[in-house]
From TrEMBL:
SUPFAM superfamilies: P-loop containing nucleoside triphosphate hydrolases. It comes from Martelella endophytica. This is Peptide ABC transporter ATP-binding protein. The keyword Calcium does not apply. One of its GO terms (cellular component) is plasma membrane. Pfam families: ABC_tran, oligo_HPY. GO terms for molecular function: ATP binding; ATP hydrolysis activity. Belongs to the ABC transporter superfamily.
Length: 362
């Protein structure tokens, strides 16, 4: 890895206007992303996690300038893409690709797989028409599909195969980074691990960097180098996957981790010091100070006014709770939880039962 980020966002905010007065002036805004700074290094996987509505997808789209930031900048390979014209931006977009959750919705049902994968080759003028088919075949093989499948339509493929096609199309533009927005969430658990393995394999072969957006901490643990945790548009913690799982510091991260179910049929209720109270506040009028204070089990008076800024310790592990050293922390029992995705547990249990039956049959 070099020390120059492939993608960087600085003080990035996106406030959507959701209500206007008769004169068209903004009356209410959703603070979807608020003052976020992050760097993605070449070849790295950075996960962005948090509850639904915390701003993960908006952040992913801002990184590609698919939506315009309210304030802040996005740098791609050192170049500020928020300052580019739309024509200039189009040329740069090939370097960052986006993979969505739903492989059904992101493929055109009227285009063959070959046409779909060849699209970026044509759009970005990467190859002349005569060489595109050979490249499509290469890309199909790279994602574990067969060139003979190239003339088929998306409806002839399973969910996992379609996601492979989406990945092949993303690779066609030779990106340096891919934003995976809940890229495996819609897939069965066994297919999820195949796609995750494929992404890891492609990363090793092609030196790709990934932003991996997910609400599922047990998925990101195994594939991420670093993890950024978001709450109500703000970054609350940032560290290596090991730091986040071994020593979660922010009460929000701790609550997220302690709510990972331990086993398929058994969930352990987290201790009161690690549980959030109440519902997610409205992002239109987020709480003052630390946005978590209305739900935090450790909240004190100061939290209503304390600025929500990431502070890093020497090891680079950053979090936005200035009081984290003083928190009376319970043992989260993470050694029993880490990576124990309940769906995987169910799958392993099914395998074991199957093996048992096999042994019992003469
Ligand atoms: N175009 C939009 N106009 C108005 N509000 C929006 C728009 N897009 C997103 N939001 C709001 O911004 C906030 C963040 O949404 P976002 O989709 O980024 O969250 P998320 O963490 O990705 O959630 P999910 O996992 O459910 O997709 C939410 O309150 C959402 O309702």
């Amino acid at each position: 890895m070099t020390d120059k980020p492939i993608l960087e966002v600085q003080d990035l905010s996106c406030h959507f206007v959701v209500k206007r007065d008769l004169l068209g002036r903004a009356k209410a805004r959703v603070q979807a992303v608020d003052d976020v700074s992050l760097r993605l290094m070449p070849g790295e996987t950075l996960a962005v996690v948090g509850e639904s509505g915390c701003g993960k997808s908006t952040l992913g789209r801002l990184m590609m300038r698919l939506i315009e930031p309210t304030t802040g900048q996005v740098f791609l390979d050192g170049e500020d893409i928020t300052a580019l014209s739309h024509a200039e931006l189009r040329a740069r977009r090939r370097h960052v690709q986006l993979i969505f959750q739903d492989p059904y919705a992101s493929l055109n049902p009227r285009m063959t797989i070959a046409e779909t994968i060849a699209e970026p080759l044509k759009l970005y003028n990467i190859l002349p028409a005569s060489k595109r088919r050979a490249r499509v075949n290469e890309l199909l093989k790279l994602v574990g599909l067969r060139p003979e499948q190239a003339n088929r339509y998306p409806n002839e493929f399973s969910g996992g195969q379609r996601q492979r096609v989406v990945i092949a199309r993303a690779l066609a533009s030779e990106p340096k980074a891919i934003v995976c927005d809940e890229a495996v969430s819609a897939l069965d658990v066994s297919i999820q691990s195949q796609i995750l393995n494929l992404l890891k394999d492609l990363q090793a072969r092609l030196g790709l960097a990934f932003i991996f957006i997910s609400h599922d901490l047990s998925v990101v643990k195994h594939i991420s180098d670093r993890i950024a945790v978001m709450y109500l548009g703000k970054l609350v913690e940032l560290g290596t996957a090991e730091q986040i799982f071994a020593e979660p510091r922010h009460p929000y991260t701790r609550a997220l981790l302690s709510s990972i179910p331990v086993a398929a049929a058994r969930t352990v209720r987290p201790p009161a010091t690690e549980r959030l109270e109440g519902d997610l506040p409205s992002p239109i009028a987020p709480p003052s100070g630390c946005r978590l204070h209305t739900r935090c089990p450790h909240a004190r008076e100061d939290c209503k006014s304390v600025p929500m800024v990431l502070e890093a310790t020497e090891d680079g592990h950053a979090n936005a709770c200035p009081f984290w050293r003083e928190l009376p922390l319970a043992d989260l029992g993470l050694s029993g939880r880490e990576g124990r995705d309940p769906r995987l547990e169910a799958l392993f249990a099914a395998f074991e039962r199957f093996a048992e039956q096999g042994r019992a049959t003469p």
